[in-house]
Amino acid sequence: MRFYLASTSPARLQTLRNAGVEPIAIAPGVDEDAVVAAAGALSAHDMVALLAQAKAEAVINQHGPDIDGFVFGGDSAFVLDDVIYGKPHTAEVARERWLRQRGRTGLLYSGHWLVDHRGGAAGAAVGAVSVATVHFADVSDSEIDAYIATGEPLYVAGAFTIDSLGAAFVTGIEGDPHTVVGISIPGLRTMAQDLGVEWTDFWNR
User: Domain of 184: which CATH number?
Assistant: First the structure.
C-alpha cells in the first residue's frame, strides 16, 4: 500500500519512517499565505485543517494519474496568548517568540488530510486536527541565541522541535507528542480505518 507524503518536512518524513512507513515524499508547492488570505479569518484549528487539505489536493492535482495509494497532507501552527504563530523564517522573529514563550505553555495544532487515491483516481477523504499542550523551560538568553544560531527554529511552527535540538527546552507535553512533530501517528491509524484500511497495511520498512 503506497503512502504519499505531501510535505517537505524532515520531521514528518522521519516520524513516518520510525513508524514503519517509507513514504513517497512530494513537495506540494502550496502558497500557504495566499490560501489563508483567500479564506479570511480562521481559527488555528480551521487554518491547519485547510492547509493540510490544500497540500494533499495540490499533489493530487499535479500528479493524479501517477498516484496509486493514499495521499497525506499536514500542517501545524502554534498558539500562545490567542495569537497564531507559524514558522518564524528569520532569527529576529524566532528570538522574539522565544523570549515570549520561555517558561510558559502554549498549544500546538496539527491538521491532517488523507485521501484514498488508489488506482489513480480520487476516492474518499478524511480530515482531523490534533492538539497538544506544550510546556517550555525557562531558558536563558544565551540558550535562545545558541538555539537560533543552529537555524533549526526558523523553519518550524512555534520556533521549536521536540525531536531534535529543541527537545531540551520542552519540559512536558499533554496529548499525543507526535502532534508536535506535525503528524499524529495514532490519528493517522484512525483515519486509515475510516477509509477502510489498516494502518499496518502501510508498513513497508
Answer: 3.90.950.10
